[in-house]
Amino acid sequence: MRKEDRFASYNPQERDWQLEGYFEPGSEVSMVSEPDGRPAKGFKDLWVWSQGMALTATVYSLTRKFPKDEMYGLTSQLRRAAVSVPSNVAEGWARNKVGFLQLGLTYARGSVAEVETQLLIAVGQGYLTEADTKPPIDLLNGLSTALLKFIVSLEGRKKRR
Hints:
The chain is an all-alpha fold.
């Protein structure tokens, strides 16, 4: 089989993120603005993406304190969960339909909960103190709320059309 043939029938909107039962595809993402009304020209304009990037930087910094034997355990798991927050926002945007953006925001919100849980595990294991985790957990709480607000606002816009 030629390399070109393997990918000829690939349609990421059909094979990857399944919207069925969750969200309608909706209009193109170019019509999206922040919940406060500010227009967004790309995913980098989204507050939730920028906060996800800040979260990722914070998590990388915190996990440098972890024991070396956690490199392939909690360190890796926590870093991957943090990276997936802005990554899912970006991927949802890039799929260019409001429904896919909503799904990406939903996945990002799930990753926020993962990061919080894993930070609490790190405290329980003695790798971090509660004082170490207060700033990122405050960021996570704000980010989770903002993601939910954004998801709901996109749903409301679809219903008004």
